[in-house]
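Q: what sequence does this backbone want?
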């Protein structure tokens, strides 16, 4: 049976006498859940808006490497900024409406591009606890929101392995406008609300900003996965229309003993073609992705003190607990016992 086949209730025998009670209503299968929803059910993401930067050129700010479970982001509200990667020496221009996500937490420098000595920066804090970073520069103005997403371990490994080093999406379409109903429109609405809340002293403002920041992560991934130029990795795989059935199947039923011919059949491809296109889009094999998803699900199950390692192994598709333990240690960087203890300490 293919992933899209729906189970139907077994046909009953028609009685030859009057049925005194109405028959039970037929149960309809639950709607199919998309890959992104499954991903965000596996991992815990929270967000925090940390600072609003309002600078006049010349200006320059540097950010060091973030912790493994942190993903910095920057939203350019007005003006322009040059983002520079000191490690690779590459630069990129960000303009109004651009959102920069750094899934690997890479060190980076943001500046106005003039090369002049930056004006001194002053910090202040409003009533909601949001910091404002300002300077006295008189050149071209920049208005930018900066924050971080936090991923509960050990799922930060999954994000780093399958998302690009840098990810830029736009909160408006190419014509400078965002059409109602589009992801760009949703992003633009979120950004506008975050902008308004960041200058407001109304009650609950800080909580609203953090809640919006968390939802922003999902919208960014949705926008990037629908792009015709999605970056290599999980987003490029999701954007590939021919491979969509396979990624949906893997995320929906990771414990199922999927075979490459079976996944290829879902995509109407030969085994060789499927393997090549999957590898080209993701940079890893389908079995690699399946294994990593299984280990992420297992990490969540291992938090339950009532579940043995044997039960967890079986729940994610492994009959051999020794194979499961070996794979878990290889992918997660710690044994199942170490992860249990770490999870309990965190709780």
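A:
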């Amino acid at each position: 049976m293919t992933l899209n086949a729906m189970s139907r209730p077994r046909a009953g025998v028609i009685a030859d006498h009057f049925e005194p009670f109405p028959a039970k209503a037929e149960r309809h299968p639950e709607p199919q859940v998309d890959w992104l929803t499954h991903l965000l059910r596996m991992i815990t993401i929270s967000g925090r808006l940390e600072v609003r930067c309002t600078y006049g050129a010349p200006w320059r700010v540097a950010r060091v490497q973030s912790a493994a479970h942190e993903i910095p982001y920057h939203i350019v509200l007005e003006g322009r900024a040059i983002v520079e990667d000191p490690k690779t020496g590459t630069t990129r221009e960000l303009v109004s409406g651009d959102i920069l996500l750094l899934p690997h937490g890479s060190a980076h420098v943001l500046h106005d591009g003039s090369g002049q000595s930056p004006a001194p920066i002053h910090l202040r804090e409003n009533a909601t606890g949001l910091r404002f970073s300002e300077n006295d520069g008189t050149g071209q103005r920049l208005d930018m929101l900066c924050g971080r997403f936090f991923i509960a371990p050990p799922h930060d490994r999954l994000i780093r392995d399958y998302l690009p080093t840098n990810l830029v999406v736009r909160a408006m379409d190419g014509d400078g406008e965002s059409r109602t109903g589009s992801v760009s429109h949703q992003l633009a609405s979120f950004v506008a609300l975050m902008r308004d809340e960041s200058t407001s002293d109304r009650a609950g403002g800080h909580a609203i900003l953090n809640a919006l920041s968390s939802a922003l992560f999902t919208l960014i991934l949705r926008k990037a996965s629908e792009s015709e130029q999605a970056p290599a990795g999980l987003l490029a795989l999701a954007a590939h229309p021919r491979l969509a059935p396979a990624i949906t199947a893997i995320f929906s039923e990771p414990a199922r003993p999927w075979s490459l011919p079976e996944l290829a059949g879902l995509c109407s491809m030969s085994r060789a073609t499927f393997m090549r296109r999957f590898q080209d889009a993701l940079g890893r094999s389908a079995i690699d992705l399946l294994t990593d998803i299984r280990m992420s699900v297992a990490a969540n199950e291992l938090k339950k003190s009532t579940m043995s390692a044997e039960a967890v192994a079986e729940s994610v598709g492994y009959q051999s607990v020794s194979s499961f333990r070996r794979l878990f240690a290889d992918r997660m960087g710690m044994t199942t016992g170490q992860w249990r203890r770490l999870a309990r300490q965190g709780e």
